[in-house]
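note to self — DONT lose this again. spent like an hour looking for the file last time. sequence + predicted structure for the chain T wanted, 791 res
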Amino acid sequence: MMISNGIEDEEKWLAEGIAGIQHNAFYLHRALDSNNLREALKYSALLLSELRTSRLSPHKYYELYMRAFDELRRLEMFFKDENRHGCSVVDLYELVQHAGNILPRLYLLCTVGSVYIKSKEAPAKDVLKDLVEMCRGVQHPIRGLFLRSYLAQISRDELPDIASEYEGEGDTFMDAVEFVLQNFAEMNKLWVRMQHQGPLREREKLDKERNELRDLVGKNLHVLSQIEGVDLEIYRDTVLPRVLEQVVNCKDELAQYYLMDCIIQVFPDEYHLQTLETLLGACPQLQSAVDIKTVLSRLMERLSNYAASSPEVLPEFLQVEAFTKLSNAIGKVIEAQVDMPIVGAITLYVSLLTFTLHVHPDRLDYVDQVLGACVKKLSGKAKLEDSRVTKQVVALLSAPLDKYNDIVTALTLSNYPRVMDHLDAATNKVMAMVIIQSIMKNNTCVSTSDKVEVLFELIKGLIKDIEGTSTDELDEEDFKEEQNSVARLMHMLYNDDPEEMLKIINTVWKHIMAGGPKRLPFTVPPLVFSALKLVRRLQVQDGDVAGEEVPATPKKIFQLLNQIIEALSVVPSPELALRLYLQCAEAANDCDLEPVAYEFFTQAFVLYEEEVADSKAQVTAIHLIIGTLQRMNVFGIENRDTLTHKATGYSAKLLKKPDQCRAVYACSHLFWVDDQDGTKDGERVLLCLKRSLRIANAAQQMVNVTRGSSGPVTLFVEILNKYLYFFEKGSPQITGAAIQGLIDLIKTEMQSDSTTSNPASDAFFASTLRYIRFQKQKGGAMGEKYDPIKL
């Protein structure tokens, strides 16, 4: 309630002030229209007396000031025209000083002073000096600030600058600099003093009010930057030291932060670069509460943009040793501000690193130095928990990746993994994902085992459980995504030299073995395929080169592969292990290593017997075994017979009759390999097909017993298609008569009352008959073969 009353009171006082100005402005306009100087001075003084109030907040006072300002511009036009008031400007300058109150007197004096300078009847510097000194008469912070702001505004176009009409006869741009600096110093003192204008409980309100007035003080620095005569030398020797003296001596955190920011924003970048030492020297002298990290970050951002704007300026950075100076300054600031939170220090290092990557991208030692300083700051601290800090550390670690688009460059930075060690487990994973995404996006190849070692150390958060975390706590989807990323990464580790590639594979194997059983199903397959890729490259060697020890041979790699796949038994993941054994067997076949291929098949069969219990998994596994075995050409008769016998035996032992039937007829392909030197045993092909037919019959009867009707004829049609395949391939045991008999059997089954009609199997049979008809009509040798078959 009190607050709303205060606001209402202020509105009332403002309204009264505006009414007073309007009332006196009316009489002032009448006096100006009748060219009555005395009346004009009287009513202008009364009008300006309204600005003597101390009841208004800066925001409301500004409204009042702008009303008065508009009237003063009108009065200035009147003062300029001597014909209207008949008084010389010198007399006028004396005359206005007789006003009763100091505030109206000084506003009028500044207005006449502006006319006085324009008349050139006195040197500009004398009038300006007089005005800036006289304004000391008002020491109330708000009134004084607005008065000096008015002085700065009306004198802005009348400063004796180079090529200005007010330069000459003893007036130089240095007088303009001196005037602005003096006005700035006085305004800053008034602004700082504002904080003592009320009780401590209203400190927050006072700080808000001071913030509203800060631009009045900052405008002086903007004016300084616009003075033509202020070159680098004047800035370095006069302007900057004087401004910094004010900044440091005022000992006010709000003023120091704002003015340091102003200096950085309004003066040219090249000036900052050449006066870096002076500017940075002031930083440790500022109050501890000043947000120096933002100030320095903005300075580095401006210098980075300056460096990016033109390659020609880069030698200047080296010449002034910008990096060293900034690095030392940041070190001193962090040292001086003992209470600076860790997030502040890391933010500074992020800015310094960004600056370094922009200005000295080729200097990796500088980049590593920044990371080293960060490690030093973080050492002795527990794992980072604060999200703001971890966000900054991730920004710090991401910057080199974004700049170089190449993780290999980051891998040469010795302090990079040390910074990562300070991240908590969750953020460590986030950063590891960022690194992997960078590699994938830029298609970066990591080509030595040493670099792979460093890389896997960086992403260890994804590869193994870090202390205090467990895979059980993870979200299943997140875990899968992380492990799939690691799997993709493995395909980016490559070297043309087989020996080095084998070292890389061994390094990766060492790391993934430490990751526990839950990760192995994701990480083992890509490693196995990397090793198989290496085996294919080595196929030209036979594995035992006489006279010298060859480190990377297919045999050695297969031994390693056996160990790698065996590791899956702890998961356990038998289906995956079986698939990988079969892949290795196929590769050993291509390398002509019969014992190795046989051993891999043996392992696959052992897994099938002992580990694969699920009936669906057994069906898939047996078809994979049959398919792989069919493509093998390395085995002698004895080994092939053993493996083929095993495969057909397991096929017939599957749980469901339809699965048995399909597996057995698939085994027929093991006895007829359509290669030049392939096995062609028609007897055993026919044996398999007949056996599958018996099983299909049994399946049909079982369905009849249990459901009272036979199942669809799909299995018979599938077997018919196998008969047609071997018939076309020229197997003498598969005759047209056998095919005719099978077609008749299917037709009989389909017409039987007990058979369930099935559109899919009917269409399948119709399609098969259509194919036979097509072959009959085609003529030629194949047409003759098919001719005896009657449809």
